[in-house]
Amino acid sequence: MMEENRTFAYRNGIQHNSVAKKAGGPDIVIPASSSICTSINGAVRINKSDDFAKPYISVATSLKQSADKYQDHPALSYKIEDKWTNISYQQFYKSVQTVAKAFLKLGLEKYHSVCILGINSPEWLLSSFGAMMAGGIQAGIYTTNSAEACLHCLKKSYANIVVVQNTQQLEKILQVRDQAPLLKAIIQIEGTPSYPDVLSWKQLVEIGEKESNEQLEKALQNTAVNECCAILFTSGTTGLAKGVMLSHDNIVFTAKAIHGLVNFKEKCERVLTYLPLSHIAEQIILCLTLQIGGTIYFADANVLKGTLIDNLKAVKPTIFFGVPRIWEKIKEGIEAKVKSAPVIKKWLLYGTSSVMIHKYKHLSNGYSMPLMNKIPAVFQYLVCNKIKDGLGLSECRYFFSGAAPIMLDTKEFFAGIDIPICEAYGMTESCGPITIASPICCMMKCAGKQLPHIELNIKKTTYDEEGEICSYGRHVFMGYVDDLDKTKESIDDDGRLHTGDLGKIDPHFGLLITGRLKDIIITAGGENIPTGLIEETIKSELPIISNVVLIGDARKYLTVLITLKSLIDKNNGAPLDELDNVTKQWCKQVGATNIETVSDVIQKKPKEVYHAIEAGITIANKKATSNAQKVQKFRILPKDFSIPSGEMGPTMKVKRQVVLDRYKDVIEEMYQE
To answer: b vs e for 295-325, b when ≥16 Cβ sit within 10 Å of the residue's Cβ?
Structure first.
C-alpha cells in the first residue's frame, strides 16, 4: 500500500486534510474509507463497479491518450476574422502542458483552483485542462455573476489564479481581490490589460514556454484519480451556490459511459460549444468529444442573442445539445416562417408532420412499418431535409435535450420534421447524465435507460411505483466543498445519490420523470401539488406564453404568473417590450387589434386576450386530477424572464424564488381580491 504522510493546515478558518504521497501518479488511487468528502484536499473511495473504464486514469492521462491516438486530427476549431482555425490533438495537448507549467510558475498549489470567468473559447478549455494537469482544480464562474458572487467562488474553491475574458469581467475581480487572500495571479484573455499586475494571455503562454517539464512532472506524479479536479457551482435559486466537487474518475468514467450507451463514431463527430462551459452538461459533452476524437467548434459571442442558427449552418454539427428553451426558440422560429408560407408549402409541412409523427409512434410501440417505409423517406427528402438544412442540422445524427424537462408538444413538433430529440436526465452532482433516451422515445415523456455500469432505482415512499430517483456508481460526486450537512442530504451512507426528483421506471423505455420533491406546493388544505405538470399543461394550451410560475404554497387556491413571448435585445439577450410575431398574430386572431407590446396588453387590458388566456387555462384545468389542482387566477407580468434580468439561470431554468420575491406584491394582490 502506498505510504501517506498526513499534515493539517488551516485556511480561512477551515481545517483541511493534506496528503503528501510518494510519486506514483497521475493514475493512482489513494486509499479512502468513505465515498463522500467535503475537504478540497481529501479523497473518496471509488464506488464499486465492474472492469468497465479500468484501469483508472486521470483527466491528464485521458487527454494524452487522445493526443497519441488522434494526433493531427483537429481537436478544436475557432474563427479568426471569419476564417476557421484548427488546433490538432497534439497541438492542444502541448498547449495544455504550456498553460499548466505557467500556472505552476505563477504559484498554483495543489488542492487550489484556477477560476475561469469567460465565454466559451479555446483559452477556457486550455485553462481548465491546464489547471487539472498541474494538479490543481478548475472552477468555472458564470459571466453573469456579480462581483460578490465571484468572490464566493474564489473563496469556496481556494483560488490561486483567476482567468478573465475581458476588462468587464476583470473589473468584478478587482473589486473583490483584496478579500481573496489566496489569489496570486490574474490573467486576461482578450486585449492588453491596463493594470500592471494583470497578465495577458500572451504573457501567460510565454511564461509556460520558458519553463521546463520538471515541476509539471512532479505535479502529475502527485495526482490521484479519486481526488478533486473540478468544482462546479450550482446555479441554485436561493442562497449562495454550492461547490460540487468532481474527481478525475468522475469525469473520465462518465464520458466513457455515455459513449458506451450512444454509438458515437470516432474522428467523425462535430460539436458546437455555445452553452456556458461553467455548466456540467457542456463540460462533459466536450470531454466526451475529446475522448472519441471529435472536433469542438466554438460559437461566436452572440450565439445566445440571435446567431445560433448562423453558427449551426457554419459548423453543421453531428451532435447537438440544447436546453429546452433553445428547442422552444427554434420551434417558434420555424412556426413564424410557416405562417407566412404559401398554402401549398403549409399543406406539405402539415402532411409531413403527420406522417413522421405516425412513424415515431409506431416505433415507440415496437412496430415496424414495412408498407410505409418509402412514404416517410419521400417526405424526409422533400420537407424534413430542407428544414434541417435551413437550421444547420442536415448532418446531425444525435439531438439531445437536458438540464430541465422539455415539453412533450415540443418533442412531438420536432419528431414531425424528423428531428427525434433524445431527452437526457442528470445533474451536476451526477457529473452529467444518469439516463439518455433513445430516438424511438422522442414522442414520450421518457428520460431513457441509465448509462452502462451505474445503478438506478426508485426510493418509494408509498405503495405506488413513483418515488425519489436514486443512483449509484462512479459518476456520483465527491461532496459539496466544506458543507458536510448538505452533502449527507444528497449522498447516503451507501454512497447512493438522492436526486430530489420523482419518477418511476418503465421496463421497456426506462426512467419516467414525474416531478420534483422541492417543486411540490402544499396548499392550505394540505394537498400536495406538483408545479411542473400544471405549468407545462398551461403552456401547451397557450402558444403565446413564454413562462408560467405556479403559486399556491399555504394558500387556499392556485394562481399563476405568466410572461408573454417577446423579442430579445440582440446586444444583451434581455427581453424587449415588443411582442414577437407569433404573439402578435395570436392577438389578432382572437380579435385584439393594435396590440404590439407587452405594455399594450397590460395597460389596455384587451378583453379578447384575457378571455382567450382564461379559456386556455380552463382547458388545462380539465386535465387536473382534482379541484385543488385547478388554477383560479392569473397575472401577466410586465416582461419576460431572462438571464440578464436574473429570473433565469445559465441553462434558462426559471429561478422560482427570485420570481416569487420580485413579484410578491402582484401575488398578494391576487389573493386579497
So the answer is: bbbbbbeebbeebbbebbebbbbbbbbbbbb
Q: Which among 365, 350, 361, 319 has a CA at the least distance from the CA of 417?
A: 350
CA–CA distance, 219 with 377 (Å, rounded to integer): 56
pLDDT value of residue 244: 97
Cα distance between residue 391 and residue 389, in whole Å: 5
596 residue type, one letter: E
Q: What string of H, E and C letters represents the secondary structure of 86-123?
A: EEEHHHHHHHHHHHHHHHHHCCCCCCCEEEEECCCCHH
Conformation bin of residue 500: beta by default, left when phi > 0, alpha when psi is -120 to 50: left
Exposure string over 479-499, b if 16+ CB within 10 A, otherwise e: bbbbeeeebeebbeeebbbbb
479-480 and 243-247: which strand pairing? antiparallel
Contact of 150 with 173, CB cutoff 8 Å: yes
CA distances from 64 to 54, 61, 69, 176, 542 (A): 16, 5, 8, 37, 51
Rounded to a whole number of angstroms, the CA Rg of the chain reads: 25
Count of beta carbons in the 10 Å neighbourhood of residue 342: 8
Q: How many CA atoms lie within 13 A of 100 on its CB side?
A: 27
Backbone angles phi, psi at 388, to 5 degrees: -65, -35
Q: What's phi and psi for 275, nearest 5 deg?
A: -80, 155
Which amino acid appears at position 455 of this protein? Answer: E
User: Residue 346: its pLDDT value, please?
Assistant: 85
Considering only CA atoms, which of 577, 613, 576, 614 is closest in space to residue 598? 577
> How confident is the model at residue 223, as a pLDDT?
95
The whole-angstrom separation of Cα 405 and Cα 535 is 11
Place of cell 489513494: 30
Give the residue ranges of the chain where pLDDT is below 70. 1-23, 50, 235-239, 366-377, 461-464, 518, 525-526, 673
Distance CA 237, CA 434 (A): 22
Residue matched to cell numbers 394550451: 541
**Quick one: pLDDT at residue 596?**
93
CA distances from 36 to 14, 231, 469, 547 (A): 18, 15, 19, 37
Alpha-carbon distance of 569 to 177, in angstroms, equals: 32
CB 421 within 8 A of CB 433: no
Nearest CA among 400, 414, 431, 454 for reference residue 269? 400
Helix (H) or strand (E) segment spanning residue 161: strand 159-164
CA dist 421 and 398 (Å) reads 8
3-class DSSP state of 566: strand
Helix/strand/coil for 254: helix
Closest residue by Cα to residue 559 from 449, 637, 483: 637
The label of the residue with cell 394582490 reads 669
Segment (H or E) for 127: helix 122-133
Query: Which residues are within 8 A (CB) of 435 and not within 5 positions of it... i.e. 6 or more apart?
Result: 424, 425, 426, 447, 448, 449, 450, 451, 456, 510, 511
Each residue's pLDDT tens digit, 488-520 = 999 998 899 999 888 899 888 889 887 777 677
What whole-number distance in Å separates Cα of residue 220 and Cα of residue 140? 22
Place of cell 422522442: 442
- Whether 434 and 450 have beta carbons less than 8 Å apart is answered as yes
